[in-house]
Design brief:
By secondary structure, this protein is of the alpha/beta class. The protein has four domains: 35 residues, no CATH class; 122 residues, Frizzled cysteine-rich domain; 338 residues, Zn peptidases (Aminopeptidase), CATH 3.40.630.10; 72 residues, Carboxypeptidase-like, regulatory domain (Immunoglobulin-like), CATH 2.60.40. 37% of the residues lie in helices and 15% in strands. It is built from 23 helices and 20 strands. Strands 5-6-8-7-9-12-10-11 form an eight-stranded mixed beta sheet, with helices on both faces. Strands 13, 16, 19 and 20 form a four-stranded mixed beta sheet that branches. It is elongated. The relative contact order is 0.09. Bound molecules: 2-acetamido-2-deoxy-beta-D-glucopyranose (NAG). Its cofactor is Zn(2+). Keywords: Carboxypeptidase, Disulfide bond, Glycoprotein, Hydrolase, Metal-binding, Metalloprotease, Protease, Secreted, Signal, Zinc. One of its GO terms (biological process) is protein processing.
């Protein structure tokens, strides 16, 4: 009884008097009057490089203790931000987050971080989050948790700014400067870094650049194209369109990097007033797909990493084995064998009188085989834009290969297998090889092409025959002339060699695009002056017609000399012109045609062939086999699941905890 009283008494005493600790009565140590929060040391290990040492709990997000803050998804995100974002925006994102989770404390008062600092980081870094399809984290909301100068804010990046000034140029990859090339960095880009670099370039050059997606890889990665034009997003009458495609084989990576640099180079040179680049972009629509096989690239990167331990015999052998790791897509399909084999169709037609080698429809049977999503996306893309010229960048040799890739001899036999446009292809291949630093030099050759190559160019079939290549498909199915550029013997060279590759190729990359302006171009119109879509431009002696685009405009690459050119369209009379192209002409000759209406004669054999073939030409996956296949394919089910939630999602879901849906973009 007396003990009870004593305790009660003490309790009363404690609640009135200032708290005093009594080792004998631990329960009495706690003050009943709420203590004013005090500054305490920043003990969060991911925040130990902040420019201050004291913080206070509860923090700005309401975490009452350090343990609370550490257990939250916010802190987890900060701890992995660097690797999630592929190194982008590090350490800015982490430090910005720390300024909210463990804000500065001075004289027992919490200071909030400055809004201006937050806004600058958000502007610079939102692309990095977009690239991994993550929403901008709610706790980095500049309006909610950050304040203006007048409220006495602190700059969370204070310690960084000095260091940053030094490398501001190298981190702003495409920032114009005296020598823009020196400001472009040449490291390998992860898929996320590639996407964010392309988007940054688009932002920096928003009046001449635009990014767009042509679809997704098997594992759901975006196939992102960057386009350059003085009018991005639109086809302009008479303006030729060119494209560059890289990394079709995931382990052939130099082209991918060169195309990322090329995009930055085009942007910064245009802004600096480089007249040649301005003229090119003002007169040409350029599309660049740096990676057609981002899934394979990831596999190749891990293969190279596995490989980089020691140089003994064993690892040499290992290296040899991994020569092709990452080449194929996630379904193990070689994309450069996966296009419809129209070359065989043409070889089968050879004995027919007046057979043609253009606009060959895709055989229905093709759709019953395995069609990779990457192939499908590229086919749709190249059918939707009137491309004139294209190059596809590979590695493993140093040569430009031109069509056909499939030998006319069924057993291969290194047989020269030429297209009707051999003169043009030879010219195009030479254009690249001759302007490349070393390619046309016999001493520089490497790889297996050398027995048949000629000054850095080779006929694909004569080198090594195979069916289903992209360049054969482009030539036989569309108006586009495409070559395959092999950029060097090493498919995945050390990073230090990339700068040199850029120097070796950058002149060739520009000169080749300019070649889209060779030959003739013009408009085919009816008598009322309306452009005729789908009219045929035929050149005497070349069994390969070009067709006109939406508004009747066409481009016909030709070598210098005299050409007899015919324009024809169903329901019109044909028109013929004789054209002379002088040897040193570097712009397309303008040749327009006006066609008169005519009754369709039943015996116009050629035209009705044309209708027939054009009829089925419009068929693209007519039975929706691809759609069916992709839904039933095992891998794609993974993809579907993953498409619902991004790949990083499971990392943040803690058992029993609330799902951090604020990380999701479309929540
Ligand atoms: C390209 O077009 C832009 C915008 O119309 C113009 O300012 C620039 O002078 C042009 N450059 C060249 C070299 O034609």
């Amino acid at each position: 009884m007396s003990i009870m009283l004593l305790i009660l008494l003490q309790l009363v005493l404690v609640s009135c008097a200032p708290p005093r600790c009594h080792p004998g009565f631990p329960g009495l140590c706690k003050p009943t009057v709420e203590e004013k929060p005090k500054c305490t040391d920043v003990l969060l290990s991911y925040c130990d490089d902040m420019p201050y040492t004291q913080t206070m709990f509860p923090n700005i997000l309401g975490h009452k203790t350090r343990e609370d803050a550490e257990a939250g998804t916010e802190y987890l995100l900060l701890s992995v931000a660097e690797s999630l974002l592929g190194g982008a925006c590090s350490p800015e994102i982490r430090m910005l987050g720390c300024s909210v989770l463990a804000p500065r404390c001075e004289k027992e008062k919490v200071l909030k971080p400055c809004r201006t600092a937050c806004e600058a980081v958000q502007k610079k870094c939102s692309h990095a989050f977009e690239a991994i399809e993550m929403a901008w984290p709610y706790f980095l909301d500049c309006d909610r948790f950050f304040v203006g100068e007048q409220e006495g804010c602190f700059d969370p990046l204070e310690g960084l700014s000095a260091a940053q000034d030094v490398d501001a140029f190298s981190s702003m990859e495409a920032l114009p400067a005296e020598d823009p090339v020196s400001t472009i960095q040449f490291p390998y880009h992860s898929n996320a870094q590639m996407i964010s670099t392309l988007k940054k370039t688009e932002e920096q050059c928003s009046d001449i650049a635009r990014t767009y997606s042509i679809g997704r890889s098997m594992e759901g990665k975006e196939l992102l194209v960057i386009e350059f034009s003085n009018n991005p997003g639109q086809h302009e009458l008479l303006e030729p369109e060119v494209k560059y495609v890289g990394n079709m084989h995931g382990n052939e990576v130099v082209g991918r990097q060169l195309l990322i640099y090329l995009a930055q180079y085009l942007c910064s040179e245009y802004q600096l007033g480089n007249e040649r680049i301005q003229t090119l972009i003002n007169t040409t629509r350029i599309h660049i797909l740096p990676s057609m096989n981002p899934d394979g690239y990831e596999v190749a990167v891990s293969g190279v990493q596995d490989n980089s331990y020691g140089d003994d015999e064993e690892s040499q052998g290992h290296r040899y084995d991994t020569w092709n790791v990452g080449r194929n897509n996630a379904q193990n399909i070689d994309l450069n064998r996966n296009f419809p084999d129209l070359t065989s169709v043409v070889y089968n037609r050879r004995r027919q009188k007046g057979y043609r080698t253009d606009h060959i429809p895709i055989p229905d049977s093709y759709w019953f085989g395995k069609v990779a999503p990457e192939t499908y996306a590229v086919m749709k893309w190249i059918r939707s834009i009137p491309f004139v010229l294209s190059a596809n960048f590979h590695g493993g040799d140093l040569v430009v290969a031109y069509p056909y890739d499939l030998s006319k001899h069924p057993l291969g036999h290194n047989m020269l297998s030429l297209t009707p446009d051999h003169q043009v292809f030879k010219f195009l291949a030479r254009t690249y090889a001759d302007t490349h630093e070393t390619m046309s030099n016999e001493n520089a050759r490497c790889g297996s092409s050398h027995t048949h190559s000629e000054k850095g160019t080779i006929n694909g079939a004569q080198w090594s025959s195979f069916a289903g290549s992209m360049q054969d498909f482009s030539y036989l199915h569309t108006n586009c002339f495409e070559v395959t550029v092999e950029l060097g013997c090493e498919k995945f060279p050390p990073q230090e060699e990339l700068l040199n590759s850029w120097y070796e190729n950058h002149e060739a990359l520009i000169t080749f695009m300019e070649a889209a302006h060779r030959g003739i171009k013009g408009i085919v119109k009816d008598e009322e002056g309306n452009g005729i879509k789908g009219a045929r431009i035929s050149v005497r002696g070349i069994r390969h017609d070009i067709t006109t685009a939406e508004n009747g405009d066409y481009w016909r690459l030709l070598t210098p000399g005299t050409h007899i050119v015919t324009a024809s369209a169903l329901g019109y009379t044909r028109a013929v012109k004789k054209v002379f192209l002088p040897p040193r002409m570097h712009t397309a000759g303008r040749v327009d045609f006006v066609l008169q209406k005519a009754a369709v004669e039943p015996d116009m054999q050629e035209e009705s062939d044309a209708i027939l073939s054009l009829g089925s030409y419009d068929h693209f996956d007519p039975y929706n086999q691809y759609g069916h296949y992709i839904l039933t394919a095992d891998v794609s089910q993974n993809r579907e699941e993953r498409a619902e939630k991004p790949w990083w999602w499971s990392y943040f879901v803690q058992p029993g905890g609330p799902a951090p849906t604020w990380l999701l973009k479309h929540h």
